[in-house]
């Protein structure tokens, strides 16, 4: 847990707070005046400071300003027995996270400090994520393995569009590598030093997608207790990749269009427009033109994101890439699993080449991984490769004569069939069933069906 610095000239207050937080295993420093507090603050950099407004040698607000100048991330709580509204306003203006009056409420203070600790932990995790992401984006390029003429032509397109800030639409079946190409475009662009934020629109419920993308201000809705940065804002100076954009609700499509056109947006509950410098890339495995004709996707947004479309071919249309891809995955996974496998036999390669790969490159990688796990020799043999498609979901030969029970089973079976056919794509499954995506989600919850189990 992050250390706490307590600054108060009243010994009883210091002892009370020291006992309160040491009992909860916090590391606590105490100071009786501004001079001691500054020394402890600069030597130990505590992230939480509980600071009395009246000190013998300095005003609490003046010390607050000095601390915030030294470390803007410091979380400072002002306490005082001389509570005036103007003092509270001034303290908050200069960066205090809260302002409490004496006598202190131990439970209230405990809750405030706990919330600050949680926020600091979240920020630390996010910073670690960004550090890892920057290594990925600035370091070794994402490997694009291919041999076919088709992929060579696509790579030439990718290199050209990467030099621009144009919106890119990546089209292709599930598993063709749309996310990989989006990251590669980012890595070779002039935005490679900035963040790469990706979000799969199918994995976030419609009612949460808006707040995830745009963020919100305190009070925007019932549970909005504090300001939240959205993914658009976090992608500033970098790239925002929206996977499966076909799943985005119509209302959000309109808001996204404004971001693309104006490079500005408002948070939920916000009045101020936030200007962002962000490149947007999107991907889909659905025919967006058909959706436009059906009225389920905005025509104006389609024209905006269709500035530079790149269609990734399925693996069955570029079978010459199977061998180099399999060899690449073998080398990568063998290293990860510490297995002594030298290669794939010609007979095993023939099996791989004869298969149509409905799950594309993702399915090929999974197949190689499974083969490495079960292989017993130095080479992967035909018997190590299992390409049997999942058994079709069968209706019960004897349906229950109980009408309600039979209908429940039929309902569950239909949902599973649709998800299996679309490899877990909820939007497409809902279209097949002739229901809304929200209704499908309710059915999946009702029958405890996990759509990710149907991903190839």
From TrEMBL:
Residue span, Sigma-54 factor interaction domain: 144-373
Domain spans labelled Response regulatory: 3-117
Top-rank taxon, per record: Bacteria
Keywords: Activator, ATP-binding, DNA-binding, Nucleotide-binding, Phosphoprotein, Transcription, Transcription regulation
InterPro entries assigned to the protein according to its UniProt record, in alphabetical order: AAA+_ATPase, AAA_lid_NorR, CheY-like_superfamily, Homeodomain-like_sf, HTH_Fis, P-loop_NTPase, Sig_transdc_resp-reg_receiver, Sigma_54_int
Residue numbers of 4-aspartylphosphate PTMs: 52
GO biological process, alphabetically ordered: phosphorelay signal transduction system; regulation of DNA-templated transcription
GO MF entries: ATP binding; sequence-specific DNA binding
Annotated protein name in UniProt: Sigma-54-dependent Fis family transcriptional regulator
Organism lineage: Bacteria, Bacteria division WOR-3
């Amino acid at each position: 847990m992050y250390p706490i610095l307590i600054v108060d000239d009243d010994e009883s207050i210091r002892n009370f707070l020291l006992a309160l937080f040491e009992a909860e295993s916090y590391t606590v420093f105490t100071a009786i005046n501004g001079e001691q507090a500054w020394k402890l603050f600069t030597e130990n950099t505590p992230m939480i400071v509980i600071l009395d407004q009246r000190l013998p040698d300095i005003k609490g607000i003046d010390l607050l300003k000095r601390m915030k100048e030294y470390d803007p991330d410091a979380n400072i709580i002002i306490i005082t027995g001389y509570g005036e509204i103007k003092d509270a306003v001034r303290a908050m203006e200069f960066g205090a996270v809260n302002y409490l009056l004496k006598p202190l409420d131990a439970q209230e203070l405990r809750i405030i400090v706990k919330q600050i600790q949680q926020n600091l932990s979240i920020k630390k995790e996010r910073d670690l994520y960004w550090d890892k992401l920057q290594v990925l984006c600035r370091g070794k390029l994402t490997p694009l393995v291919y041999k076919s003429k088709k992929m060579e032509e696509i790579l030439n397109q990718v290199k050209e569009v990467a030099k621009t800030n144009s919106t890119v639409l990546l089209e292709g079946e599930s598993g063709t590598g749309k996310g990989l190409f989006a990251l590669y475009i980012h890595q070779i662009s002039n935005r490679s030093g900035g963040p790469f934020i990706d979000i799969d629109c199918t994995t976030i419920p419609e009612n949460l997608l808006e707040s995830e993308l745009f963020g919100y201000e305190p009070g925007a809705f019932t549970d909005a207790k504090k300001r939240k940065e959205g993914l658009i804002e976090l992608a500033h100076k970098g790239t925002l990749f929206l996977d499966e954009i076909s799943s985005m609700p119509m209302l959000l499509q309109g808001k996204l269009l404004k971001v693309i056109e104006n490079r500005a947006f408002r948070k939920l509950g916000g009045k101020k427009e936030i200007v962002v410098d962000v490149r947007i890339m999107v991907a889909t495995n659905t025919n967006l033109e058909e959706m436009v004709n059906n009225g389920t996707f905005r025509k104006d947004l389609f024209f905006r994101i269709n500035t530079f479309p790149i269609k990734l071919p399925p693996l069955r249309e570029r079978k010459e890439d199977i061998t180099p891809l399999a060899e690449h995955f073998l080398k990568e996974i063998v290293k990860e699993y510490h297995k002594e496998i030298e290669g794939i036999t010609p007979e095993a390669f023939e099996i791989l080449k004869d298969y149509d790969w409905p799950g594309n490159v993702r399915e090929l990688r999974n197949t190689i991984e499974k083969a490495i796990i079960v292989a017993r020799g130095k080479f992967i043999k035909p018997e190590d490769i299992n390409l049997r498609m999942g058994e079709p979901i069968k209706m019960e030969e004897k349906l229950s004569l109980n009408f309600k029970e039979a209908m429940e089973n039929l309902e569950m079976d239909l949902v599973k069939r649709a998800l299996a056919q679309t490899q877990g794509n909820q939007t497409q499954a809902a279209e097949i069933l002739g229901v809304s995506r929200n209704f499908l989600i309710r059915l999946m919850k009702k029958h405890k069906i996990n759509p990710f189990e149907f991903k190839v």
